[in-house]
Design a protein that fits this description.
alpha+beta; 2 domains; binds FE2/S2 (inorganic) cluster; binds fe (ii) ion
Length: 333
Amino acid sequence: MTASHETIERIPLPLPFGWFQVLYSSELAIGESKPLNYFDQELVAFRTESGVAKVLDAFCPHMGAHLGYGIRDQAGSGSSVVGESIVCPFHGWQYNGEGRCTHIPYAKNLPPKVAREEEVIRPWHVREVNQCILVWYHPEGVDPLFEPESVKEAALDNEEWGEIKSFTWDIETHMQEIGENAVDTVHFLFVHGTNDIPDVVKLEFTGHTRYGLLKTRQPTPKGEIEGAIENRNIGPGLTFVRFTGLCDTLLMANLTPVSREHTHAKYAFIQKKVNGKTPAGGIGDAIIANVCQQMEEDRIIWRHKRYFEKPLLCDGDGPFGKFRKWYSQFLIE
Ligand code: FES
Ligand SMILES: [Fe+2]
């Protein structure tokens, strides 16, 4: 090899700050812990005996063991939780969700920081809403600058809406590229084979939120039906998509960065109950299958494309400039 080989970063964008879904609530039972790998970092999530979800940096400040991997009877799952604290598998030190060491089982004299009840391991801001566990990520450690939103469809005790049907994709791209799909109306024709381009009825960018309303025409056995797709972003990581017209569906389309060019797309569908039951089959399933198929189609483009800061656009293209300007508020170079 000669020394002239030049490497170009495929997507030269930093990780955005915001709220990001790391787990569904149902994935973390009381007393359970789990390792997490997001934001190019190792973390641990645990649920205390009083039921609160907590997230800490993964590595024990004593000797660096990962708090998310249990040993002996807990090998293969997380380490144990006692009361409000997680127990390090290596020497049994315990930490609460505020990052303080609450117990060292064998020490006669506590290290000064522990005795003073100082934070010894970094706690993450956590919110549990919409049956999801969210954490706040900011590359410079700034505290939350906005809050996530809860929606009635995703409330656990909502009688009118069915159970979550969830899908996760591991996508080899920066999450901005995935978000940008929402304003790219033309790609529907080519990547997804739709008959026409959806009409953008509304598109609003307000602070950390974005709202879009699309009108669609969907062919059905009973003829063409007018439908609407609404989407609302809360920062770069959280999106609510609402489909109305055929089978009322809420899609929580959440994106969480593993690293700069690797994203988890966590999609959760909740559909309005019919005769008291979660819809099964029919148009409800067809909506879900259609979104899933679109993800498989989009990911081929995302996996191989490059990010251009100044793409060569034409007047029929979607509002990429507006989208990128809005998104740039979450990027710190
Ligand atoms: S490394 Fe965690 S208790 Fe020793
Ligand atoms: Fe798409």
